[in-house]
């Protein structure tokens, strides 16, 4: 018989998902738990396995289309006389989500082993119907910046159209922090020669949306400091053999995380978020450090939870585990959400200086750049030292230049004299 697989609820508050790619085609034979499709939500990209063994009879939503939770995503013929009859109703309405559809025949089991591939954490979600969301995408409107007029704070299609035309927010909206930004018509690029066109969707599109929101919402400023890492280079070299005996790959990043956590405790406004709805600054007394790194789907932020409670070796193990999970596409949702402060590092390719974009809704992000031997003046003499630059981008709405500068000065002091860092760990 035909089994109708409805898109399951794959995250709290998720009402729809964008189809990133299908790993199967109509007519293909699949086995139980075989990965069949990647779906992107506001929370994560998830890889969904087949709930049945059988033949793919009908795919209702193609790559790039939006499938609401509860709609029939795919029909699987697992053998039986009723298969052909059951396929036709599922196709009604195609991939636009407007047509009638059969009521759920069988929902996804609660234990469906969905694998999270990547995530964009901390994004507030506007309350709106799938039709309103489609309209916003077509008009290039950021729903998070639309003043809602619907019941219980719901964004309506009229709200989206008003924002797209540059209309002012209604006076009744007392909770909007900033006026809705003017939306521009989508830019079309005319052919100009030999080109390749790649669909702009999935993780690349989510990264674009998240970074754009951060730049348009947080008032960024950046501060840079030079760090003399010579002493820490020596400490790390001496510790590498002991770390290797314990199966630990020891990089500089665990030391940097420790220095950052100790400094965040002195400057708590940098370990905070702004609850715009409640108009409250939330100072967090837990330290979940995000590590931004490049993954196969694009930039990903993995999260070292309770970094203040971990030893250097434990941090090294966890950072290595998370890195492998991101690169291998096996990171869970918990591995990728909930950071309170982010560190962005390219390791040996870290360059001289950068102005990283804040991982919204966090308050700050610290950029780590390459360590290299450079001349420095010490006691009136020119000597060769292992120098590195650190940069920090801070949301000026919540923290001042003093906070960012003093935080980085504390990090500098701890890294330049590792003895003091170990004292902070006691």
Provide structural commentary.
It contains ten helices and 18 strands. With 426 residues, it is of the alpha+beta class. The strands form four sheets. Strands 10, 13, 14, 15, 16, 17 and 18 form a seven-stranded mixed sheet that branches. Strands 7-2-4-5-9 form a five-stranded antiparallel sheet, with no helix packed on it. The chain has a four-stranded antiparallel sheet with strand order 1-8-6-3, with helices on one face. Residues 81-124 and 171-182 have low confidence and may be disordered.
Structural class determined from secondary elements? alpha+beta
Largest sheet: 7 strands, mixed
Q: Helix amount, in percent?
A: 25-40%
**What overall geometry do the principal axes of the alpha carbons give?**
globular
State the helix count.
Answer: 10
Task: Please compute the radius of gyration using only Cα atoms.
Answer: 25 Å
Poorly predicted tracts of residues: 81-124, 171-182
- Give the N-to-C terminal Cα separation: 64 Å
**What share of residues are in beta strands?**
25-35%
Overall number of strands: 18
Mean pLDDT: 81
Question: H/E element string?
Answer: EEEEEEEEHEHHHEHHEEEEHHEEEEHH
How would you describe this structure in keywords?
single chain; 18 strands; alpha+beta; 5-stranded antiparallel sheet; 7-stranded mixed sheet; 10 helices; 426 residues
Question: What's this entry about, in short?
Answer:
The chain is of the alpha+beta class and 426 residues long.
């Amino acid at each position: 018989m035909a089994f109708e697989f409805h898109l399951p609820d794959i995250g709290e508050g998720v009402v729809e998902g964008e189809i990133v790619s299908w790993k199967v085609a109509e007519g293909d034979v699949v086995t139980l738990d075989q990965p069949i499709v990647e779906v992107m939500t506001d929370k994560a990209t998830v890889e969904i396995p087949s709930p049945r063994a059988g033949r793919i009879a009908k795919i209702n939503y193609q790559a790039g289309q939006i499938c609401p939770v509860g709609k029939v995503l795919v029909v699987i013929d697992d053998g039986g006389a009723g298969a052909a009859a059951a396929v036709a109703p599922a196709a009604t309405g195609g991939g636009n989500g407007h047509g009638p559809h059969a009521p759920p025949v069988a929902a996804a089991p609660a234990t469906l082993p969905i694998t999270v591939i990547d995530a964009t954490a901390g994004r507030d979600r506007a309350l709106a119907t799938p039709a309103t969301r489609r309209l916003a995408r077509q008009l290039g409107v950021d729903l998070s910046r639309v003043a809602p007029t619907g019941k219980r704070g719901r964004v309506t299609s009229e709200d989206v159209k008003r924002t797209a035309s540059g209309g002012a927010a209604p006076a009744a909206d007392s909770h909007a922090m900033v006026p809705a930004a003017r939306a521009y018509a989508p830019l079309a690029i005319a052919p100009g020669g030999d080109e390749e066109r790649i669909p702009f969707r999935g993780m690349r599109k989510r990264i674009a949306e998240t970074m754009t929101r951060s730049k348009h919402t947080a008032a960024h400023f950046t501060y840079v400091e030079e760090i003399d890492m010579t002493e820490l280079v020596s400490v790390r070299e001496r510790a590498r053999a002991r770390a290797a005996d314990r199966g630990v790959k020891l990089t500089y990043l665990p030391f940097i995380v420790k220095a950052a956590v100790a400094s965040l405790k002195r400057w708590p406004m940098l370990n905070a978020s702004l609850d715009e709805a409640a108009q409250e600054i939330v100072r967090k007394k837990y330290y979940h450090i995000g590590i931004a790194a490049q993954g196969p789907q694009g930039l990903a932020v993995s999260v070292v939870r309770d970094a203040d409670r971990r030893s250097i070796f434990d941090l090294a193990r966890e950072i290595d585990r998370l890195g492998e999970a991101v690169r291998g596409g096996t990171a869970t949702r918990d591995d990728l959400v909930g950071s309170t402060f982010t560190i962005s590092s390219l390791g040996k390719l870290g360059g001289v200086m950068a102005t990283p974009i804040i991982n919204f809704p966090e308050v700050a992000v610290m950029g780590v750049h390459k360590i290299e031997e450079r001349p420095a003046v010490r006691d009136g003499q020119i000597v060769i030292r292992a120098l590195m630059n650190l940069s920090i981008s801070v949301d000026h709405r919540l923290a001042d230049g003093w906070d960012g500068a003093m935080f980085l000065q504390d990090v500098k002091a701890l890294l330049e004299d590792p003895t003091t860092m170990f004292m902070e760990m006691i």
